[in-house]
């Protein structure tokens, strides 16, 4: 068996759920796995089976966690009724809540992407803006400017200090509500319109959420995934 010094860190990813040919399937967009592996880590897929024992067993062998993007989460999980524009078609949404809370209890580095960023705020007790006033400016893969607003893992991943501006992609219509942040959550990046682009928990452990999709970006993606892999390796060595 490979020891911790010779094997790559294992990054545990949740999966999307849909129906194909009248059968429920679980799948992962390949970009996530490609970026994890390009950073020198091994992607490990976590099926959406809401069994705490299974989740804990998979977390036992994980060195880091990635929460992928996807459709909207049911706003009733943060105490609100659905907005008319909220997409209520996400399948097995409760699994992600259970998985995320279990991961947060561990000392594992975490990266949340798009809906995964929103998930971080939800499971720490926060809420979302269910539909941005200028949602069309954020949908369909459009690009826009974002600003680093504080030092942290976001600024480290980009190699850019507070006040630095970068161009990000955009595939969303919801966002973390800055007036209803989860416990301990701080905003470390904002979009051109002031909407939240990055959030994280303070401390030595990486718990970072980004609203954009770095797995689809050749400029910003490598730095973000490399930091996740590096933080996972640190945990393997007990640092």
What is the CATH level 1 assignment?
Alpha Beta
In which range does the helix fraction lie? 25-40%
**Coarse morphology:** globular
Q: What proportion strand?
A: 15-25%
Q: SS-based structural class? A: alpha/beta
Give a nutshell description of this structure.
Helix 3 (93-104) crosses helix 4 (115-123).
Please tag this protein with its features.
13 strands, two-stranded antiparallel sheet, 239 residues, 26% helix, Rossmann fold, 9-stranded mixed sheet, alpha/beta
Protein architecture, described:
26% of the residues lie in helices and 24% in strands. The protein has 6 helices and 13 strands. The chain has helices spanning 30-38, 52-60, 93-104, 115-123, 153-158, 221-236; strands at 10-13, 16-20, 23-27, 42-45, 64-67, 110-113, 128-129, 142-148, 165-170, 175-176, 186-191, 196-200, 207-210. The strands form 3 sheets. The protein has a 9-stranded mixed sheet, sandwiched between helices. Strands 2-3 form a two-stranded antiparallel ribbon. Strands 7-10 form a two-stranded antiparallel ribbon. The longest helix has 16 residues, at 221-236. It is globular, with a radius of gyration of 17 Å. The mean pLDDT is 96.
């Amino acid at each position: 068996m490979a020891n911790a010094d010779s094997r790559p860190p294992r990054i545990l990813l949740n999966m999307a759920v849909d129906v194909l040919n009248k059968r429920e399937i679980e799948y992962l967009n390949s970009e996530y796995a490609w970026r994890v592996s390009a950073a020198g880590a091994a992607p490990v897929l976590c099926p959406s089976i809401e069994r705490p024992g299974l989740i804990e067993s998979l977390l036992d062998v994980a060195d880091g966690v990635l929460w992928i993007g996807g459709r909207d989460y049911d706003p009733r999980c943060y105490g609100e009724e659905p907005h008319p524009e909220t997409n209520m078609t996400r399948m097995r949404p409760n699994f992600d809540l259970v998985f995320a809370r279990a991961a947060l209890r561990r000392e594992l580095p975490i990266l949340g992407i798009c809906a995964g960023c929103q998930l971080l705020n939800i499971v720490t007790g926060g809420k979302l803006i269910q539909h941005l006033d200028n949602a069309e400016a954020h949908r369909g893969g459009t690009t826009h400017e974002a600003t680093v607003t504080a030092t942290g893992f976001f600024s480290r991943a980009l190699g850019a200090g507070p006040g630095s501006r970068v161009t990000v992609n955009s595939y969303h219509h919801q966002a973390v509500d800055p007036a209803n942040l989860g416990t301990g959550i701080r905003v470390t990046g904002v979009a051109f319109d002031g909407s939240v682009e990055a959030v994280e928990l303070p401390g030595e452990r990486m718990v970072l959420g980004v609203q954009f999709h770095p797995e689809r970006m050749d400029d910003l993606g490598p730095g973000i995934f490399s930091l996740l892999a590096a933080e996972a390796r640190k945990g393997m060595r007990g640092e």
